[in-house]
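Feature request, filed as a ticket because there's no other form

It would be nice if the structure record came with a short human-readable summary line next to the tokens. Right now we just get the raw output. Example of a typical job, pasted below so the devs can see what we mean:
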Amino acid sequence: MAQPTEDFDALVIGGGPGGATTALLLARAGWAVAVVERQRFPRRKVCGEYLSAANWPLLEALGVAESFDRRSGPEIRRVGLFAGEAFVGADLPLPKSNSASRWGRALSREKLDTMLLEQAACCGAEIRQPWRAVELHDCGDRFTCRAVCQEDGDCRELRAPIVVAAHGSWAPGRLPTEGPRQPKRAGDLFGFKASFLDASLDDDLMPLLTFADGYGGLVHCDGGRTGLSCCIRRDRLAQLGRNADESAGQAVLAYLFEESPALRAALGDATCETPWLSAGPIRPGVRAAYRDGIFLVGNAAGEAHPVVAEGISMAMQAGWLLAERLIGASDARLTPTARDRVGCAYARAWRRAFAPRIRAAASIAHWAMRPAAVRASLPVIRSFPRLLTWGALCSGKTSSPWRRTIDVEHRGSRWI
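Raw output as currently delivered:
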């Protein structure tokens, strides 16, 4: 029996920040866009949930700045370091173009992702949720995707000349942009996340947590909650003893309290408000922003160590980079040659914007996971706390990929 077929200008696989940003901007420019998202929102994610100050122009262009401002947590003005009993703090930098002096803030992924995807729908994107893309085939001038509803098994064939893979990198799959299941490695990183109430942490502070074989961070989010997210190596995780009724996340927290009295002081009297989430293995690195005729955004294109809290920013900014180039080259929908030309330009722009952040994040992560290296650095960091500010600069806290005034909506929207 033939499956119902639907045609679009662009198909976006994945409705997270990168996919939703791409879909929103393309739909606003008049493209027929479908988004296939495997989960129904709102849903929690293992994520630091922080958006740096450099993203305010993008939030405004997407039409969600007011909503983000109203819902998100307090302004984050300082970065800190928790290393054992030690604490060092320093000011976060502001982008030079941030004339309003607005700082970065955190918003739970339940609210952020839902807000962005709803805005994409308001701009005309068709949202298929919870649907899963199970097959994707290159048919020359267009791709054919078989998508299946996760709830009732309804199956559709979606066709489009432009496909954007925004499905993340953690889960294996059968799509050309999804990798096979990888063999286990001792150095694999697993992410953990939980939210706490009544934490003893300054509202404007976002500290980096260092410990043996891992790293983490704290940030005040919306609703008076404080999010703790961390990564820990597979071999260290296997060594943690836990009771039969204790989750892996609770065992990780007990280990963090042993390693970091500074963290225990911040969270010791707090109440864990949510069940622990875990995900992984996380394998950061630069992948490919364009391959086999498919555009990639978010972690599918490349992933920074979460130690720098730049994942959401990179995903949304990559969505903007891609949408700018597709909107400016409408012939990309007509021939594979034109699509390849746009893909090469996008891949170059992606590397310029994000490869330095990924390299900086790797350096910081490998330092943070080695207590001996951290102890050796502490006297210098205490004497020159602005090294933390410099680290924030290197990781992209003031970086944005837009360097010229453009017209995203073709209606005069100006970018800083």
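Something like this underneath would help us a lot:
The CA atoms of residues 356 and 395 lie 8 Å apart.
The longest strand covers residues 189-197.
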